[in-house]
Write a structure and sequence with these properties.
The complex is a heterodimer.
Chain A (H helix, E strand, L loop, with lengths): L1 H14 L8 H6 L4 H31 L6 H7 L10 H37 L7 H20 L30 H30 L12 H32 L10 E2 L2 E2 L7 H35 L6 H14 L15 H13 L1 H15 L8 H23 L2 H7 L3 H31 L5 H27 L19 H31 L72 H13 L8
Helix pairs in contact in A: 3-5, 3-6, 3-17, 5-6, 5-7, 5-8, 5-9, 5-15, 6-7, 7-8, 8-9, 8-10, 9-13, 9-15, 10-12, 12-13, 13-15, 13-16, 15-16, 16-17
Chain B lengths: L2 H6 L1 H29 L6 H5 L1 H31 L8 H25 L12 H34 L15 H30 L10 E8 L2 E6 L27 H4 L2 E3 L2 E4 L4 E7 L4 E5 L4 E5 L5 E5 L5 H8 L6 E5 L11 E7 L1 H9 L7 H6 L16 H16 L1
Classes of the chains: A mainly alpha, B alpha+beta.
InterPro entries (chain A): Cyt_c_oxase-like_su1_dom, Cyt_c_oxase-like_su1_sf, Cyt_C_Oxase_1, Cyt_c_Oxase_su1_BS
GO molecular function (chain A): cytochrome-c oxidase activity; heme binding
GO biological process, one term (chain A): respiratory electron transport chain
């Protein structure tokens, strides 16, 4: 709590042109202001996303034209693409690093890091995070993790290439593949730093939300993004340490000759001395994080889209409590479903049955969320801002990708679908595209809050339609490859007769992927141009209810000059009958909206209800209140 | 930015100069090309491969988009200047686009289901596979209905409830009855799917062995990047292995001290008698691989230090499948489905399902793993007698092996 007091004083200093001067370094680099840290996370996330997208285009080119040479590849990649053809080992490195960057650096840090940092203090009414210093460290650990991960492209043996799940023994035995040498060590170091960053962030988010809400902001008055960030942070705090434990054991196995994950291994005729470990142990540890991780990725996106959909449909989110309870349900269930990644690893089949039951239960809260989104749109008054377009796109992807999850969660169907393109299509829709769309919706929606300027809406429209269509063109056909039994992570489809019929589909998918990638240029240009040249944002551009839009457009450390506003109502009073405007900000007390108050609003406060009744008697119902 | 400002803007002017220059050069280039075209045809292959070509195309597209953007802006500004309502109602545009997307999307889904849907694996060629296929079809029907219904609602609502300044949205924060319904209905549907899936799963992995129809044991060992198959020989039991015994001659580390190992046979392809249960014993030498036989709906990882077991019964011979798929070159196969290194994409072996009689002739021709070198290594007497006579009856064959075994046991 001392931090709050400190910042309060700090603010008073500002009034009489304080002595505390911000230097370039303290403002832009080692900043402890949550808004600046959010921007740092966002821009780093965007850069990493562009890199990972570039990697995906490289391996898509290889998949589409496996027997053609592309001299420019050799120019960029040197010996990894001798003669203009990507080598198999490097292909695996590409898919590995693409997955790692996208899952951890873009959709975890880039999404949670950006919006938790930006929105938690602003939406709950706090001057900053509970621990701004920890917050700064969190970014810098993340940044170091990114640098180390990228540095593995500049070493002799190349980056880690055992897949983003880095299953041992492939990733532990250096002889198994070139990427399991130094590249894998860098991967592990990077991951430890990343987890540290993520924990510092998560602890900060949880303590800020629990302790620093403004007056009147009880838990059930928090906007849904805050609920999502809160539960995401809890998930991260409970699951990431398990990954670190697994990673440390792997470091021991790789560097100090222990046998946690190794046993009975013969490379060619070379018998390794390791005995007594089990590769399956890693899979348990990894997926104990890995499955919550996919909810860490999607829940903030769902929270953001709840807010964006409600604001732009000009309608309260349908079933606010159900939305929160379904998030809580997902949070709890996500800890007991990890085994569905391991149905065919030879794990005891009895466990497979149990994990199938828990996995399919998790579809229920997800279905509730989807139906609530649809009910929110029903009889709304929908403004198609770019953010809203992306939020609708998210709902579409969440449905399409979620439904295929019912196939994969079913252990007996998973036998034939496991590790095929069906899985690739499934998770790219439900956690890839959906989470990216949630992130983009957030960027378009809160850009005015972040940079005080508006993004160009028309470029946003173009960006949305190209990306939305291209994403479906890329991922929808891939389901069918999987149903035909084409395994993922294949360098080329040329060696199997039955895969040759999919080569033309691969060409099509690659062109669609290139189109999706080029569409992002519209976003990148819009984003960076608008930071400097965009139209100056008004105070509340989307006419939203939440607190962040009451803070001044000009950023100041501490968010609000003077007192932090008090909150009187829930955040979703849109189009309330009896009120002249179609939104009532959270800071407006019920005494100012007598014409629109409902009995439910007073939560059983008899005195308030009496006052309301008296007022209604004095002001007979007019046509307005219908 | 007003139009006048746009024209006087320096950067715009510079851009205009560049564009003119670019246009001129391309005109010249066209002239040159036209000149060349008069003679032989220009080979465009190199052009399509050069990165610069694509960058230029992309820049041209960007320029085109920028021009359209400016045109829209000019149109809107002129509407504004004349005091007319806003030029383009973007809400209506997007609502219509969503409606259009719904229609085209539904057709696209139909096209995918029929065209790509007809390129998939043929019906399962194993007993449990049929159950999996049934389960799959049921799930597919349910999910397709939900998929289409929810998308019609999503894009339909987007179209119908587009913004209008005259309207106010319907304040409808919650309805507990509706929410209960759409919690319980999915829960019920999923209960059905879970139960069916659970029963299918149990029937695949918890089999009661029929003493009269004992499964044929086959061991498959994976390594980077090949498979080794071991048939059990006449005793019907695949013998023990110990990875520490691996040598250049004994690549699988078979322990020949175990009697059951001595008659184990090697094979280049997997040949299975139709209608007879097969018990696959899967192991790995180096890293994790995944034994995947898509046509039989069989997949299980091979894990070093672990034996995994999958039991199934093939129901269609290769010849029957060739007829069914109308493809005389059709072959069953198994392949690797778990990332295992640079050769991951080409780890396959052919599977032949044949009649019982064909199987017997084939198995009689296979060689044992145990050879004279290994006999010396394991201090076993080098048996002079032929391991396999060309006996045509199986009984005689196994008797021969028995005597052979006795000889070895001495």
């Amino acid at each position: 709590m001392s931090t709050i007091a400190l910042h309060d004083e700090h603010n008073h200093d500002h009034a009489d042109h304080g002595h505390h001067k911000e230097t370039l370094i303290s403002k832009y680099i080692f900043s402890m202001d949550h808004k600046m840290i959010a921007k740092q996370f966002l821009i780093t996330g965007i850069i990493m996303a562009v890199i990972a997208m570039g990697l995906s285009i490289l391996f898509r080119i290889q998949l589409a034209w496996p027997d053609q040479n592309f001299p420019f590849l050799e120019t960029f990649l040197g010996k990894w693409a001798e003669g203009g053809r990507i080598k198999p080992d490097f292909y695996l490195a590409l898919v590995t690093i693409h997955g790692t960057i996208m899952v951890f650096f873009v959709l975890t840090a880039g999404l949670s890091g950006t919006f938790s940092n930006l929105l938690i203090p602003l939406q709950i009414g706090a001057r900053d995070m509970a621990s701004p210093f920890l917050n700064m460290l969190s970014y810098w650990f993340f940044f170091m993790a990114c640098v180390i991960m990228m540095s593995s492209f500049f070493i002799q043996t190349g980056p880690a290439s055992g897949g983003w799940t880095v299953y041992p023994p492939l990733s532990v035995v250096a002889k198994a593949m070139p990427g399991s040498g130094l590249g894998m060590t860098l991967w592990l170091i990077s991951m430890v730093l990343f987890v540290a960053s993520s924990l510092m962030g998560g602890i900060n988010y949880v303590s800020t939300i629990l302790n620093m809400r403004t007056k009147g902001m009880d838990l059930w008055k928090m906007p849904l993004p805050i609920w999502a960030f809160f539960l995401t942070a809890i998930l991260g705090i409970l699951s990431f340490p398990v990954l670190v434990a697994g990673v440390v054991l792997m470091v021991f196995d790789r560097s100090f000759g222990t046998s946690f994950y190794l046993s009975d291994i013969v490379m060619g005729t070379d018998i390794l001395p390791n005995e007594g470990g089990s590769p399956i142990l890693w899979q348990h540890l990894f997926w104990f994080l890995g499955h919550p991780e996919v909810y860490i990725v999607i829940m903030p996106a769902l929270g953001i889209s709840s807010e964006v959909i409600s604001v732009n449909a000009r309608k309260p989110i349908f079933g606010y409590h159900a939305m929160v309870y379904s998030l809580i349900g997902i949070t709890v269930l996500s800890f007991i479903v990890w085994g569905h990644h391991m149905f065919v690893t030879g794990m005891n089949p009895l466990l497979g049955g149990v994990f199938m039951i828990t996995t399919l239960i998790i579809a229920v809260p997800s279905a509730v969320k989807t139906f609530n989104y649809l009910a929110t749109l029903w009889r709304g008054n929908i403004r198609f801002t770019p953010a809203m377009l992306f939020a609708i796109g998210l709902v579409s992807f969440f449905i399409s990708g979620g439904l295929t999850g019912i196939f994969l969660g079913n252990a007996s169907l998973d036998i034939n679908l496991h590790d095929t393109y069906f899985v690739v299509a499934h998770f790219h829709l439900v956690m890839g595209s959906a989470a990216i769309f949630g992130m983009l919706a957030g960027v378009y929606h809160w850009f005015p809050r972040m940079f005080g300027r508006m993004m160009n809406a028309k470029l946003g429209y173009l960006h949305f339609w190209l990306t939305f269509i291209a994403a479906y063109l890329v991922f929808f056909p891939l389901h069918f490859l999987g149903l035909d039994g084409v395994p993922r992570r294949y360098y080329a489809f040329t060696e199997f007769e039955f895969m040759k019929k999919w080569l033309t589909v691969n060409v099509f998918v690659t062109w669609a992927a290139i189109m999706a990638a080029l569409a992002q240029v519209a976003f990148l240009f819009n984003f960076f141009y608008s930071i400097f040249k965009g139209k100056v944002a008004p105070q509340n551009p989307w006419e939203a209810n939440t607190l962040e839009w009451t803070a001044p457009v000009e950023h100041l450390h501490g968010n609000w000059p003077g007192e932090i506003p008090t909150v009187y109502r829930w955040p979703y009073d849109y189009s309330k009958p009896g009120h002249d405007a179609d939104f009532i900000p959270q800071t407006v007390p019920f005494s100012q909206t007598m014409s629109s108050n409902l009995p439910h609003d007073f939560e059983g406060n008899e005195e308030a209800e009496k006052i309301q009744q008296d007022w209604e008697l004095a002001n007979p119902v007019t046509e307005n209140k219908r | 930015m007003s139009l006048r400002k746009f024209i006087t803007n320096k950067t715009t002017a510079a851009l205009a100069v560049l564009i003119t220059a670019f246009a001129n050069t391309s005109v010249f280039a066209q002239d040159a090309a036209a000149g060349a075209a008069a003679a032989p045809k220009v080979d465009m292959g190199e052009v399509y491969k050069s990165v610069i070509f694509y960058i230029l195309v992309f820049l041209a597209v960007c320029l085109f988009i920028a021009i359209i953007g400016k045109a829209i802006k000019v149109y809107e500004l002129s509407r504004e200047a004349q005091g007319k309502p806003v030029g383009i109602n973007w809400n209506r545009v997007h609502a219509s686009l969503f409606a259009l997307f719904l229609v085209i999307g539904l057709y696209g889904v139909y096209w995918e289901y029929t065209v790509h849907g007809s390129m998939l694996l043929p019906d399962a060629a194993s007993e449990h596979g049929k159950k999996i296929d049934r389960m799959f079809n049921l799930t597919l029907i349910i999910t397709t209905i939900v998929f289409i219904a929810t998308h019609i609602l999503l894009f339909g609502f987007s179209y119908i409830y587009k913004y209008s300044a005259k309207r106010k949205a319907y304040y409808y924060p919650h309805n507990n009855t509706i929410e209960k319904i759409w919690t319980i209905v999915p829960a019920l549907v999923l209960t059905v799917l879970v139960l069916m899936g659970f029963l299918t799963w149990r029937s695949i992995f918890f089999k009661v062995e029929d003493p009269n129809n004992k499964p044929l044991q086959i061991e498959v060992t994976s390594e980077q990047f090949k498979w080794s198959i071991r048939y059990p020989g006449a005793d019907g039991i695949v013998g023990k292995k110990n990875y520490k015994l691996t040598t250049a001659t004994n690549t699988l580390g078979i322990d020949f001290k175990d009697v059951n190992s001595r008659d184990d046979e090697m094979a280049d392809e997997m040949v299975l008698p139709v209608g007879k249960p097969v018990k696959l014993i899967l192991t790995s030498k180096d890293v994790i691989h995944s034994f995947y036989m898509p046509h039989f709906r069989v997949q299980l990882n091979t894990v070093p230090g672990m034996r995994t077991v999958f039991e199934f019964t093939p129901t269609k011979t290769t010849a029957e499948m060739q007829q069914e798929t109308n493809d005389p070159n059709f072959n069953y196969l198994f392949l690797c489905a778990k990332i295992c290194g640079s050769g991951h994409y080409n780890m396959q072996k052919v599977v032949r399902v044949v009649s019982e009689a064909e199987y017997k002739t084939w198995i009689a021709e296979q060689k044992t793993y145990l050879n004279d070198d290994l006999r010396k290594q394991f201090n076993l007497p080098v048996a002079p007698a032929p391991v396999k006579s060309e006996a045509d009856s199986a009984a005689k064959d196994s008797a021969a092996v028995k005597t052979n075994q006795m000889a070895l046991n001495k």
